[in-house]
Amino acid sequence: MPVTVGPYGQSQPSCFDRVKMGFMMGFAVGMAAGALFGTLSCLRFGMRGRELMGGVGKTMMQSGGTFGTFMAIGMGIRC
């Protein structure tokens, strides 16, 4: 597919750039959701202090990676 050039000479992002952007957006949304749900679940289990921070961080990374992967796949399908 040819790359179109805008009126000021800038070109559209490549497919790889779109996939990267989709992953980063998905990762950010997943981290926010992981912070919310991870905090609630860890507090429900009665975690405190360092154990709480470790559990929330682990949940944030897992949900961020999962959601980022699916967003990257979706952006790859679109281009």
TrEMBL record:
Nucleotidyltransferase in keyword set: no
Domain of life (superkingdom): Eukaryota
Keyword Transmembrane helix: yes
A Pfam family the protein falls into: Romo1
SMART domains: Romo1
Localization in the cell: Membrane
The entry's keywords: Membrane, Transmembrane, Transmembrane helix
GO process terms (BP): protein import into mitochondrial matrix; protein insertion into mitochondrial inner membrane
Annotated TM spans: 23-43
Coiled coil region boundaries: none
InterPro entries per the UniProt record, alphabetical: Romo1/Mgr2
GO cellular component terms given for this protein: TIM23 mitochondrial import inner membrane translocase complex
Protein family according to the UniProt entry: Belongs to the MGR2 family.
Primary role: Has antibacterial activity against a variety of bacteria including S.aureus, P.aeruginosa and M.tuberculosis. Acts by inducing bacterial membrane breakage. Induces production of reactive oxygen species (ROS) which are necessary for cell proliferation. May play a role in inducing oxidative DNA damage and replicative senescence. May play a role in the coordination of mitochondrial morphology and cell proliferation.
Name assigned to this protein: Reactive oxygen species modulator 1
Source organism of the structure: Podarcis muralis (Wall lizard)
